[in-house]
Structures are given as structure tokens and as C-alpha cells.
Amino acid sequence: MKKYNYVPVIGLEVHIELSTKRKMFCDCSSEHFQIKPNTNVCPICLGLPGALPYPNKEAVKKCIKFGISFNCMINKFSKFDRKHYFYPDLSKGYQISQYDIPFCEGGHWKSSVNSVFRIKRIHLEEDTGKIQHRKIGSEYFSLIDFNRSGVPLMELVTEPDFSNINDVLDFVKDVQLASRYLEVSNADMEKGSMRLEANISLRKEETGKRDQMKRLPDYKVELKNINSFRFLRSALEAEIKRQTDILKMGDKVIQETRGYNEKTHQTYSQRSKEEAKDYRYFPEPDIPPILHQSKEIDIIKTDIPEMPWMKRQRYKKDIGLKDEYTEIFLKDRKRSAYFEQILLLNKNSGLDLSYIADQIVNKNLDLKYQSPQKLLNALSVEKNKTYASSKEIKNAADSVLKENTKAIEDLKNGKIQILGYLIGSIQKKLNGKGNINEIRRYIENALMEN
Ligand code: ADP
Ligand code: ZN
Ligand code: MG
């Protein structure tokens, strides 16, 4: 049998819970993390018959803002659709989502080495309730909390453009940073406000063609239950290995949804994957289509700050900062703001920026000096300090020792505190520019000699 090399084909789906005050289609508070179950609910988010949903404008704005920052085209005509499936945490029997006309389409993200990864769409939907399986006494119960039901959920879907795991991780980390920079979500993985799914297949290695022109495998496996960046990496590694082994045996990989087990480091089959037709999508009849004018979109554009990938490029190109410092500043907005002030103030100080970055990142000097100007002053003083030469120390020490014969006798007789006095006197003659250790050594040697 002919042996092939296989290349991973990976596409991502990222869910992000928006940090709006209210839920997506009602006025309930969207707070749901660690609070009393079923306290933020109403007929709309409980899915009671006859309740009428109305979209949250703030959530729509946040979704569009997010889409613009990822270079998406914003649909001026958009709508919500019903996506049907049965599960107890979905009380209506369908989820209000967006099917064929999402708010944002066709964007892209560039990695630090400028590889382009296409974003297919970004749409808005509602989150589901949460089921807890509990044993109370000797009986098992499944409990449902609807506080999360109806919380705005944004879903970003990429094209299957990723072929290595590092790019995947860089991307999802930037999605998290972007959510924070844009203040659309805190995107905490542990709290479930950012959730990852990865679709993966393997294709035979072909040379010559551009990645995006290469034929996609006729199957894909969707990985779910990934709740940290670390698990994303190991789930992908495990799944690539599993699929490689199957293909090398000459078998076919089954299209399905798989979970990841953190303990065994393996993926396991959950269910066969449903297709769009299984969901019986149709336009949500209770919510009219959403129209946007260019003007409104332009206003949202003005609200977008410098994004992490832009800052990364600027730090690389304009100031030549080492990547390790850049990445720390990108993640830590407070430090980053401090460093930005340094950049403004440092124009004439002549201090090296990587040196300053090092003093902040490794010595925490930004905590010691609340004001960036004070840090710069301190670093300048440090830099301009010229130390006294050995000859200058010798001269100063000799004259101090000569003037203090009585003190030296006392020192020799064990009055050790005299040493500090002598060092102080010598340092005074040197205007504080002496090295304390060198002075001490000089005195000790001098005493031993006579
Ligand atoms: P579906 O309609 O089945 O949900 P989509 O085309 O919307 O499929 O893609 C869903 C996700 O699967 C996207 O993230 C996409 O990039 C990814 N994907 C599509 N085809 C493949 C493939 N052959 N291998 C890996 N991922 C894929
Ligand atoms: Zn409600
Ligand atoms: Mg979805």
C-alpha cells in the first residue's frame, strides 16, 4: 500500500457569552454564574407559550463590533432563525440563532508571521439552561437552572484553514484578547464564557497548490467539551494521532462528534453529527429582520481600539521589542497602558526600550513607581551613575583611615559598628559613588596589613 503523509485540516467554532446587562430576548439580568438557580427568569427565557422575544440592541452592537475588528463584512439586512432540537435545557424546543444571514461574514485573522486564516461568519444566538446531575440521598436527579437560558451568545466560525496546532492556539488566544479589548466579554474559559469546538480531518499531503485550493476531506470530526487552551492542544494531538492510525490502516474515519477525556488524554465518540437539515431551520416569525445603515456601522467602527494583533505588529516593527515582552504587555492591559505612557515619555531619555520593558516585566518596577515618569527618572539616574574607580576609593579610604587612628584601634578591639562609620566617611568623600563592598574589602585588607 502506498504510504502518504497526512496534513491536519482544522476549522474552529468559538462561542462567546456577551457581557451585556440583559439577556438576548428579554429584560432578565444575564448574571448566572454561581447565583441561586432560576432567579433570573421570565416567561420569555423560560420559553412559555405566547411570550414574545425582542432582541437586545447592545448585544447586536457588540457582535457587529467584534465582526468589524475581525475584518468581516456586516450584513445590512440580517435576521434570526429557529434552530430546532430537543434537549431539556432548551425549553422552547428550538434555539433562536442565525442561519443564512448572520450579522458578520467573510472576515480574516492574521498570525504574527502574517499567515491569513479566514473567518466564515460571526452570528448571535441565545445560550441554553444548565443541567446538573445530582445524587440526593440515594436517588439521582437531573436539575435544570434557567438563569443562563437566553444569555447572548456569539458564535465565530472559521474556514478550515488551520493545519497546525500552534496557529490554532494563537488564534483562540487572540479571540480571547479581542473579546477583552473590545469589552464584549471577559471570555473566561473556566466560567464557560468562552467555549471551543474544533473540527478536524486529515488530508493527504499535496505540494504546489495553495492551502485554500486544496481539496477538503469528505468527513470531519467535531471535538467538544474542551474547556482550556491546554486541553485544546492535547485533544487535537490525540485526535490527529487517532485519525492518522485509522487512515494508515487503510480504513475510513467516521464523521461524528467526539468528546475529550482529560484523564486518559483521548477523544471518545459521543454521537453521529447532525446536519443542517436535521435542525429544520426557519426564520423566527416573532422577530422582524434587523436592518442597519452604513452610518450606524461607521459609528460602531469608531469605537474599536487598537487590536492585539495591531499592537503586536507595532511593537515589532516600530520599537523592535522582544516577542516575550510584547506578549506579556498584550495580556496585561494595565501594564500595557503603563508601557504606552513610557513610549510617549521616553522620546529623549535615550534609554533602551527592551531594558525598560525588562525592568517592568521582571523587576516589577511599574509597581514600585506608580508614575511612569518617575520610573524613567530612576532608570536614568541609575544609568548615569558612574562609579568611583579603585584608585579613587584607595585615596579616599587612606585619608579617612589616617584621620581615624583611634577609631581603628576600637575596631580592632571588637567594636564592629565602627566599620559602618568608616565606610560612611569614605563614601562621603566619594560623593556616594563608591561601591560599598569594595570599600569594605579595602578597609579589611588595610587592617590586616598593619
Ligand atoms: P456544517 O454545515 O456541517 O456545520 P460548516 O461548513 O459550517 O459545516 O463548517 C463547520 C466547521 O467545520 C467550520 O469551522 C469549518 O471550518 C469546519 N470544517 C468544514 N469542513 C472541514 C473539514 N473537512 N475538516 C475539518 N474541518 C472542517
Ligand atoms: Zn427572561
Ligand atoms: Mg451554534
Automatic annotation (TrEMBL):
Keywords: ATP-binding, Ligase, Nucleotide-binding, Protein biosynthesis, Transferase. PROSITE patterns: GATB. InterPro entries: Asn/Gln-tRNA_amidoTrfase_suB/E, Asn/Gln-tRNA_Trfase_suB/E_cat, Asn/Gln_amidotransferase, Asn/Gln_tRNA_amidoTrase-B-like, GatB, GatB_Yqey_C_2, Gln-tRNA_amidoTrfase_suB_CS, Gln_synth/guanido_kin_cat_dom. It comes from the Bacteria. Transmembrane segments: none annotated. One of its GO terms (molecular function) is ATP binding. Signal peptide: none annotated. Allows the formation of correctly charged Asn-tRNA(Asn) or Gln-tRNA(Gln) through the transamidation of misacylated Asp-tRNA(Asn) or Glu-tRNA(Gln) in organisms which lack either or both of asparaginyl-tRNA or glutaminyl-tRNA synthetases. The reaction takes place in the presence of glutamine and ATP through an activated phospho-Asp-tRNA(Asn) or phospho-Glu-tRNA(Gln). Heterotrimer of A, B and C subunits. This is Aspartyl/glutamyl-tRNA(Asn/Gln) amidotransferase subunit B. It comes from Candidatus Woesebacteria bacterium GW2011_GWD1_38_10. The lineage of its organism: Bacteria, Candidatus Woeseibacteriota.
